[in-house]
Design brief:
By secondary structure, this protein is α+β, with helices and mostly antiparallel strands. The chain contains 11 helices and 9 strands. The protein folds into 2 domains: about 100 residues, 2-Layer Sandwich (Phosphorylase Kinase, domain 1), CATH 3.30.200.20; about 220 residues, Alpha-Beta Complex (Aminoglycoside 3'-phosphotransferase, Chain: A, domain 2). Strand 7 and strand 8 form a beta hairpin. The chain starts with 13 loop residues before the first helix and ends with a helix.
Length: about 350
Amino acid sequence: MKTDDPSIPAGIDLPAVSRWIAESVDRAEPPFRFSVISGGRSNLTFRVEDANGYMMAMRRPPLGRVLESAHDMGREFRVISAIGQTEVPVPEALALCTDHSVNGADFYLMAFIEGLVPHDASAGAAIPQTERQPLSQDAVKVLADLHSVDPDEVGLGDLGRRDDYVGRQLRRWSRQWEQSKQREIPEMERVVAILASSVPEQQRSTIVHGDYRLGNMIVGEGRILALLDWELCTLGDPLADLGYLANAWLDPDEPPTWREAPTQATGFATRAETVALYGKLTGADLSAIGFYRAFQQWRMAAILEGVYARFRHGAMGDEPSFDLDELADSVVHLAREALAEAER
């Protein structure tokens, strides 16, 4: 969706969306101003401000063709509505639009939460030293709390199959890889063959976030104010979330695999301490954590290849704020890191 007005972001039909918001959110008063919230490389997220300064956040799929089953706004809205009943901090779900005549795709509104989203090392360095250890511990506690939620009690019992989570993920992301890949990377096939032959027995079945890292959180005063980006949420093996967090939790002297991490600033808990705290809080057997880390490196390579493909073909609207060649190289690097971890 394009517009000649540079003040209106791509992906917003200003008159139609404005009318819908005014009719759907009680306290929202037009006119509305929309601006892109940076950081997202999959679904598009916008800040929405009404005439009285009331702030909301809007989520919609990327522009153009999207993969089947990906970017399901209704599902994401359902998840945050359900998780909002628990101790896990999420923005309040406000309204969902499934009428494509309004904006060309489903979208939803949620409360806007003020705070810092720690995407990288510089953002980590902006967090006061006295808040870094408490924040580290709260990040693990929120993950443990999420994994303690009974899906049936919050209405998510049918969100997905509970068994064979890793096997299903290997099959799903293999398909996504085949649909999205822009070149051949032999390590991707070698890793998936190793992983498929050595899947650990699934200890529990819980709600799985799917993208659990500090960069998908709004933080402040040493705690998690809101956990964001639920588009990959399903039911399955909670250790997949822990493996993902471990990969994203870089120690200060550790070079990034594909991006910086806020924990590269000093004063955060170490990766080993973070993993150990999860084990203490949940009682989980973490002896196979290396498998889950290799799985998540491979899965992230498949995800990033999809991001790379969408930007190459113009499905994400504006020009990327990063180097596409570096993104492409990161996919290869992640595949090689996954292979090294899987072969240990």
